[in-house]
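cron nightly-structures :: item 1 of 1
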Amino acid sequence: MTVENVLSAPTRSIEPRDPFIEAFVDPDADPAGGPAAASLEEGRRDAAARRFALKPVVGVLTQPTLVASMLVLALVTLWALVPSWFTVWDPIVGVPQDRLLPPSTEHIFGTDNLGRDLYARVVYGAATSLAATTVAVVVGLAVGSLFGLLAGFLRGFVDDAIMRFMDVLLAIPSLLLSLALITALGFGTLNVAVAVGLASVASFSRVMRAEVLQIATAVYVEAARVSGVRWYTVLRRHVLPNASGPVVALAALEFGVMVLAISSLSFLGFGAPPPTPEWGSLVAGGRDYLAVAWWLTTLPGLVIVAVVLSANRISRALERNGGIR
């Protein structure tokens, strides 16, 4: 062994697992120079998140009846909000020489016995009918959900008292109960809406109670109550948000039922006084002209049927996702 070999420092190659090198080298880096594995994984997660976000939209577009139902309700809502976009005719003032004209390009739904454009009256009547239906749904949803929430959460005597009262309401036909409430409240569109809403309180209450009874035994609700959270805070933060899905689906179903109920009461003369257009009163106004003007009752009736069926179709979709039990 020579002196040079002894004095010279030994040469060694730096190992890939050297701690000093690992502090500066990304362990996820692709040795071929491509993108990092972490970036690829993040891209895959983003793509999966986008597919998950678009899944409800794709599911809706693959159901033609659901799309048609949504379009019908959207059209009727636009009728109620901006009726002047859809007709140039006055719904109140008619032209006497144009009375009882059949449907044509000028008068899509024909004219009534006073020469008023029937399509204009249907379009402007959407505001009154849908406003009354919305009030009825809000009244039934708010009052019924409150009773069901208290009955399911407090239980005991409160549950028994509320549910026996709801059983009494369910024993009375809804239309008869609405007529009794209208007799007490008086005629008019608003009173009709409130009466129909109160007649549906029992349905909302029973569904909300069933959901609350199931959610109140969940672990996170029990943990919140044991930790000292006030009972009304537990209701507001934990129970109500998780129990609202089936009740909202029921509200969509009741929307169609209430359109039919309010139109029926308007048909009987309990709604808005003439000449205010309302769908039920339009059907009633054409009864005396069925032999010579079938369109006076048929076309407004078909509009009511389309709205009710569309609301029911949407409620079934919400039921499938929200789960009315």
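cron nightly-structures :: done
The chain has a mean pLDDT of 81.
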